[in-house]
């Protein structure tokens, strides 16, 4: 089992989760992070660090966001690892409460 980054990360890209990850399983895209399911050890230390609650255990992914399980796995293969905290996107505060942001995802 692994953890999954959901829709609420898109256009925010808070990276508080990155510093606490003991196995560097986060991957960075232009406007979102994902978790590499082959690297995640299911420790859950990242969950409380995310200010937009974008990280959940795979078994807790909401029904309407199940496609994010495959999306994390796909994008983790293409995006580079991120191992240090960075500033969120400049307009993250404007986007943090917006839902259904998949159309905003930049690959």
Short description:
The chain is α+β, with helices and mostly antiparallel strands and 107 residues long. It has helices at 16-20, 67-78, 92-95; strands spanning 3-5, 26-28, 33-35, 55-57.
Question: Could you walk me through the main structural features you see in this protein, from its secondary elements to its overall organization?
Answer:
With 107 residues, this protein is of the alpha+beta class. It has a single domain (3-82), classed as Alpha-Beta Plaits (2-Layer Sandwich), CATH 3.30.70.20. The chain contains three helices and four strands, in the order βαβββαα. It has helices at 16-20, 67-78, 92-95, and strands at 3-5, 26-28, 33-35, 55-57. It has a two-stranded antiparallel ribbon. A two-stranded antiparallel sheet has the order 2-3. The longest helix is centred in the last third of the chain and has 12 residues, at 67-78. The N and C termini lie far apart (25 Å). The relative contact order is 0.32. The mean pLDDT is 97.
Which helices and strands occur, and which strands form pairs?
Layout lengths: L2 E3 L10 H5 L5 E3 L4 E3 L19 E3 L9 H12 L13 H4 L12
Poorly predicted tracts of residues: none
Distance N terminus to C terminus? 25 Å
Mean pLDDT: 97
Largest sheet, in brief, is: 2 strands, antiparallel
Q: What sequence of helices (H) and strands (E) makes up the elements?
A: EHEEEHH
The shape, in one word, is globular
User: Which structural category fits the helices and strands?
Assistant: alpha+beta
């Amino acid at each position: 089992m692994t953890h999954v980054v959901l829709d609420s990360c898109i256009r925010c890209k808070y990276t508080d989760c990155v510093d606490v990850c003991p196995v560097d399983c986060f991957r960075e895209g232009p406007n979102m992070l994902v978790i590499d399911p082959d690297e995640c050890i299911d420790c859950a230390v990242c969950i409380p660090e995310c200010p937009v609650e974008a990280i959940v255990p795979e078994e807790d992914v909401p029904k309407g966001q199940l496609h994010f399980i495959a999306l994390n796995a796909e994008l983790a293969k293409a995006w580079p690892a991120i191992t240090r905290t960075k500033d969120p996107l400049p307009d993250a505060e404007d986007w943090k409460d917006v839902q259904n942001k998949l159309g905003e995802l930049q690959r």
